[in-house]
Amino acid sequence: MTPLIAEFIGTALLVLLGNGVVANVLLNKTKGQNSGLIVIAFGWAMAVFVGVFSVAAISGAHLNPAVTIALAVAGKFAWGNVAGYIVAQMLGGMAGALVMWLMYRKHFESTEDSDLKLAVFCTGPAIRSLPGNLVSEIVATFVLVFAILSMVSPKMSLGAMDALPVALLVLGIGVSLGGTTGYAMSPARDLGPRIMHALLPISGKRNSDWGYAWVPVVGSIIGAVLAALAHGIH
Predict the structure, then answer these.
(1) Is-contact 65 85, C-beta < 8 A?
(2) Using CA atoms, how far apart are residues 85 and 113, in angstroms rounded to an integer?
């Protein structure tokens, strides 16, 4: 398997399981309906664990354009490989969202609330205030990337279980910082599925909220770059 295919598959697994837990909690007539934020946060943590564990040995398991850019800024990844990784991650995010929709298609049809259908695919603010929402995404991604850069130090290694600290990190961010915007922290996780929401024939869907779509993209990249610069100082 090549690194680009690994990034595609790893990101697809991450989004399939991550968006899958959101579908399980939000959509009507599922086994997990209304089980709450804790279940979503735990499900996303396990999604990250599966994605990272599956392909870390092949591609480094960035699975996130913001992480790829941060590693390049930090001098830990070649800039010449950045574009290919980002394309693979975005396509993987779209593929994962597609499979999730196919699995939960009947539950989408059973759900009347178009806002919930959008929320299964991508994030949105609890209180809409674009400057504040942007800051939320910057802070959450800063925490994610700063911690990841510390974890990849040769002094910090659990061997095959290196994916576990990343999963616990995402769980912590979710329950602590996820209440404002849903902690996207990744264009592949948010923009990729949002594109699929726009393209797929989802019954009773609303618009894909393109006026907000830039916030998780720009916020995650800014937060990641700031984390890389801060890690270089520290």
Answers:
(1) yes
(2) 35
pLDDT tens per residue, range 51-101: 999 999 999 999 999 999 999 999 999 999 999 999 999 999 999 999 999
Give CA–CA dist 129/126, Å, rounded. 9
- Collect all residues with Cβ–Cβ distance below 8 Å to 137 and sequence separation of at least 6: 181, 183, 184, 185, 215, 216, 218, 219, 220, 223
At 110-159, the pLDDT tens digits run: 999 999 999 999 999 999 999 999 999 999 999 999 999 988 654 444 44
- pTM for the model stands at 0.94
d(CA 30, CA 91): 27
Angstrom distance (rounded) from CA 99 to CA 12: 9
CA–CA gap between residue 179 and residue 136 (Å, rounded) = 10
Q: Is 186 left (phi over 0), alpha (psi -120 to 50) or beta?
A: beta
Contact residues for 194 (Cβ-Cβ < 8 A; gap 6+): 121, 122, 208, 209, 213
CA distance 93 to 95: 5
Q: Kindly report the backbone phi and psi dihedral angles of residue 150, in degrees, each rounded to the nearest multiple of 5, phi listed first.
A: -75, -35
In the numeric block, which tokens belong to residue 2? 């090549």
Tokens of 122: 């991508």
